Structure formats: C-alpha cells, structure tokens
Amino acid sequence: MNDVNIMLAMPSLLEPLYIAFGWLTRVLYNFFGNYGLAIICLTVIVRGLLIPLNIRSQKSMLKMQALSGKQAELQRKYGDDKEKYQQALMDMQRENGAGGLSGCLLPVLQLIFIWPIFRIVSGPLIYLSQVSTDNINAMIELGKGMGDKVISGAVMTTNHIGLVKALSENAQFLNECVRRGFVRMDQLVDLHFLGMDLTMTPAWNPKLYIQDPKTYFPLLIFPVLVLATSILSMQLSKIMKPGYKEEKEAKEREKVNQARKGQSGQDDATANTMKIMNWMLPVVMLYTTFTMPAAMGLYWVVGSLMGILTQIIVYYMFTKPYEKKKAEIEAKKEAIFKKSGKAALETAGGNNSGKGKKGKKN
Prior knowledge:
Blueprint: H1 3-9, H2 15-32, H3 35-49, H4 51-66, H5 68-78, H6 82-96, H7 102-122, H8 124-127, H9 133-146, H10 161-169, H11 171-179, E1 192-193, E2 196-197, H12 206-211, H13 213-219, H14 221-239, H15 244-256, H16 261-289, H17 294-361
Antiparallel strand pairs: 1-2
Helix pairs in contact: 2-3, 2-7, 3-17, 4-7, 4-17, 5-6, 14-16, 14-17
C-alpha cells in the first residue's frame, strides 16, 4: 500500500467537500455525457470561484506597494523597536484596507481543492457511478479470487483504477459482478476523452510506448501541456507584477555599477534562490502528472489556463492602471522639482546680478 493510498484511506474533514465535488461532477457528466468535458467544466467552475479572491489579493498587494513610503517612515520612527513597528504597520494597513488574509488564503484553497479532484478522478465508481463501498470491496475480493491478473494496480475503495480497468477489459469478471448484483450495466461510465483513457497514467517507461503506442503516446500531451502552461503562468506572474519595470531597470543599473559589486553578488545569490523555488512548482506538477490518472493532468492544464486568464484580467483591470497613475504622479513630481530648481537658479542669478551692479556703483 503506497503513501497516497494510506492518506486517502484516512478519515478526513474534507469528506463533505468530496461529496459536493462528486455530486457536481456527476451532474456535469450527465449533462455533457463526456468525462473529459465534465472535468474541464468542473475546473472552470472551481477556479472561477477563486477569481474574486485573486482580484482582492492583487488589490491588497497594490495598496501595500502604495504604502511603501509610509512603511519606510514607520521604520525610521520606531528603529529597533520591532513590536511597536509591527503594531503601527498593522494599524496602517487596516486603516487603508491593505494586507489581510486574502493573499495567504488563495494558495491554501487551491491546495485544498486538489484533494477532492484527485479523489474523484481516482474513484469514479463511487462519485460517478455511485456504486456502494461494500459492492466495490466485494468486487475486489471477487477479482482476487479469480486470479492476481484480473485486477492490477491500486484497488482500494478510494483509488480503484485497477478495478475500473478490469470491468472494462475482462468480460468474464464483468459478467460475474453483474450477475451477483455488485454493479449494473447502466452504472458503467465512459471515461475516455478525445480517444484517450483518462483513467490511465502517463508513463515514464519507454517500454510501454513500444508495447502499447496507441494508449501511451496520446497521453504525453498532458505532461507537455502541464509543463508549458505552468511555465507560461510563472513568467506572466513575474512580468505582470507591480513594479516589474522599475525592478528590471534597477537590476540593470546594479550590473553596470561596479562600485556595488560586493552587494550585487549577494543579490544574485538571493535571485538564484528565488529562481530555483519558482521552478520547483512546474517540476512538481510535471512529476504528479506521471503518477496520477490522466484526468488529473487535464485538471492541471485547465487550471493553469484559468490562472493565466485571471492574471491577464487582474493586470488590465488593476495593475496597469495603477502603474499608469504612479508614472503620472512621478512625472508631476519631477516637473515640480525641475520648476523649483529653475526658479532657485533664476533667483540666485538675479541676486548675483544685483550684487554686481552694486559693486559698480561703489
């Protein structure tokens, strides 16, 4: 029994969420009559519900950036008194509607929602076919009695892809299960999408591609798309974040400035660490795509596309207008500064001229 199955078998507080997601997936499957479309629509609904929270998080981040000047003032005011500084910072954020839990809540909810999706794609007999747990256990025992090769792979009641495969490929086993009343023919659902079996797992082993190319080569589309969309999302997140241009220009100036070479080395080390951490997520997602049913890969792909769409919406609705307003304010400040400087020079020039004339009179 692997660790994933152990975790799935444990009693969980997320059971109501599993039931709700299972019901919604069943409704979508009955409506579309297609397993893949049901997973796609479920992902769109789930990620769509998180868009308002994403927008709120972005607005909070923009407000925090706008308060950076006041934050610096608080640091100068309280110095080493971290307790008073933190309290003053929290008060300032609360008064201006910045901060809050929205930034932390979003990734937590995204992580939590992975579990019911995984439970559904690994247990379609329960959540789509509505076969009872007792009947599933009975079919597993029957399969074991008929020989080790009847049911292969994970056959627990929460991850029974091997049982689904046995029912679809072994006519003798299926007939016996139907005869004993463990499952009805109308409870069996088609788990294919665009000719691909979404219960199958994309394979690392090249031998499987040689033995069964029609099954495994099409499934490679999911790891490829998962990697591509996650990298694209990561790059867009970096480019569309507030202050990206200023940050990029500052780094360019830092490279040119040889006087800060020692500090630059420290910054480079920090930047490299951040790059490694950013690349970890696409690598982890790619790995999970090769260890879970292809339906999970479909969820990753659609989820990443929804995330990219959300990033674009947030950027054009909030980040870009904020950057434009900020640039206008900076331009006005610069114009005022230049005007003040010019006036000061003219005044100084006038005073010097007056002194010169006085000297001539004398």
